[in-house]
Structure formats: C-alpha cells, structure tokens
Request: fold
Amino acid sequence: VHEDRLQDLIERLRRFTRERRWSQFHDPKNLAMLVASEAGELLQLFRWVRNDEADAFARSPENRREIEAEIADVAIGLLLLADRVGVDLPEIVRSKIARNAEKYPAAP
Amino acid sequence: VHEDRLQDLIERLRRFTRERRWSQFHDPKNLAMLVASEAGELLQLFRWVRNDEADAFARSPENRREIEAEIADVAIGLLLLADRVGVDLPEIVRSKIARNAEKYPAAP
Amino acid sequence: VHEDRLQDLIERLRRFTRERRWSQFHDPKNLAMLVASEAGELLQLFRWVRNDEADAFARSPENRREIEAEIADVAIGLLLLADRVGVDLPEIVRSKIARNAEKYPAAP
Amino acid sequence: VHEDRLQDLIERLRRFTRERRWSQFHDPKNLAMLVASEAGELLQLFRWVRNDEADAFARSPENRREIEAEIADVAIGLLLLADRVGVDLPEIVRSKIARNAEKYPAAP
Reply:
C-alpha cells in the first residue's frame, strides 16, 4: 500500500503545533511572514554565487545540507499556511501549472 | 491504486520546463530568487491585515483565490528548485520537523 | 544653504501618512512586511537576468524606470519604519559600515 | 556648514567595497538579492509579534538593537544598488512619493 507522504507531513506538523500550543501564533499573516523570511534565508545562500556556478555550488555536500535545510523551512511554512487556510496544496499547484501552460505557450 | 501526487506534479513541471526550453534559466540561484519573489507576493496580500482578522480575511472567496494562487507560485518555485538540486522534498521536510521537535521541546 | 534632503523626505512621508490617516496601519510589523514585499518586487525584475548581463540590463531606459520605482518603494518602507521606531537612519548605517569594516578586513 | 550625510555614506560604502575588491560581486542582480535577503532578516524579527504589540516590542533595548542592525543592512544594500545603477536615491524617492500622492488621494 502506497502511503500519502504529503498527508503524513501535514499530520506531523499538526501534532508538532498542537503539542507546543503554537496555533495561536499561526494565523495566515504570521505564516506568510514565516514563508517569506525563510525564503530570504534560502536566497542568502546564493547571493554571491554566479549563475554559471550555481549548480556546482549546490552539489558540494556542505552547501547542499544548508540548501536542504532552507528548502525544508520554506516548505514547512507553506504546508502550515496551506493547512491553516484549508487548501489542498497539490490541487492548487496542479491548477496553477495548467494556467501557466496557457499563459506561456510552449516553444514550437 | 494510490497515485503519488507529488511525483505527478514534479513530472508536470519537468514537461512544462522542457517544452519551453527554460531549463537554461532554472539554475539554483535563479530558482531561489523565484521562490523569494513569489513569497514576497504572498506577503503583500497580508501587509495591512491585522493578526486577529487574518483568518477571516483568508476565508473571503476573492482573497482566498489570490492566496491560493500565491501559495501555488511559491510551491512551484520550491518544487523546481528541489528537483534541480536533486533533493527528495518530503524526506527533507520530515527530517527537519524531527530536528525542530528536538530543538523546541513540547509544552508540558 | 544646503538642505537636508533626507529630513525633507521624512517630512513628506509624515504628511502623506497623516493626510491619509494611515498611521494606524503603520506599526513596525506591518512596515517590515512592506519593506520585504517591496524588496520581493525589486528581486522579481532580476530573476532571469544573468549576472554578467545585469549591468547592461539596468541601463536600458525601460528597465531602469522599473528598477528606480522598486528601489524607491523599498526606500519609502525603510524610511517609514525608521521614523516609526525613532532611529536616525544615516547614523545606524554609518555605525553598521564601521562594524562591517572590522568584521571583514580589507584585502592586503 | 551642513554636510550631506547621504553622500558621506555612499563614499564610505564605495571605499569599503573598493578596499575589499568586492565590486565584481556587486552587480545589480546580486545587490537586489542582498536587499531582499536582508529584508527577510528584518521580517524575521517581527514574525510572532502581534500588530498591537509591535511598537512596544520595538522599544525594548535589545529588540531595538536588532531592528536597527537589520534596517541598516537593508539600507546598505539599497545604497550599494542605487550607486551601482547610478540613481539619485532621494530624487527617486521624492518623485515616487509625489506619484503615490496622486494615486491615493488624501482622506477628506
């Protein structure tokens, strides 16, 4: 049986929040700030890296660990926010990709 | 049979990128910028909303559509970045939640 | 007589805010969000620009107008925030440059 | 004689950058990333602060020191960027305030 990995993460985050009584801080405004400030930390890692060196930079084990941690932090903020406002994250992403495909036609 | 919804999204994004020949622009530095600038747009929606009105704000249908679109844009940037650097997003999120649980002990 | 251009801007912003009765929205949290979301718009202009083309990009008149507008928006947010919390912006910048100079010794 | 404090800061930043040979890293794209990631750090300070407590929060000496440092970092990024692309920061701010005043008429 194939587990739903995303649902498992959402349930872990709900338990984490409940056990710390942090729900009071997790209104949508504060969670949007969480997402944006974690995105700022992700950005910080790449500030002085040149575009043509960014892939190699991301492959070095030490950088990779930092990148993974910052990607995870943004994702956690996003999962908390999606859960708080009650949206099905994969569904809205699927729908946005479809709209982008119309907006930006494929190269011939 | 339960489909893997996240893997499905990743494959849709790969096809989308390939058909537009955008892979050349999607180095990790630029994708980190994509994530952060989309997070800035998400943030913008909540700038003047008070904390104690943020949940009600997010329930209004018009606001909700905008919030969904911005959450989706951040998620798309994050999925593109995770795929580019080759990380398993649910796995790094699961691991980060576990580390956070140690770092911030639960309330008694 | 040499005018203080920064003080003039602060006074213009105070009048602007007062005439719109926006002071109620301009607590430091919301102004930090203003700064960060405007910084996200500035970032957005450079997402797909390569490092080695960024200077030329910024010299094109149309791009330049957009860059100026976004720089100005971030600056306005920062001036509003500095004024709200009562800090002397040039003084804290001068002091931070001095600390950075100690932290990062000059190349020999 | 009244000194131009902003021009003094710009000259200090030019010297700082020159002595470290950092000009090569300071293209407009990277400086936009600097501004946005420092704005993310500023944002981080206010993530869990309620709107109606944000002014009091900012008055506490310890918080104030952190807020000053982050405001200064954003301002430094902005001054470096404005200087790199050759814009007169007070002039574009003054012009943007004037346009905002037309866009958002004052309350009667």
Q: What stands out?
A: Chain B has a mean pLDDT of 95. The interface with chain D takes residues 33, 36-37, 40, 43, 50-52 of chain B (CB under 8 Å).
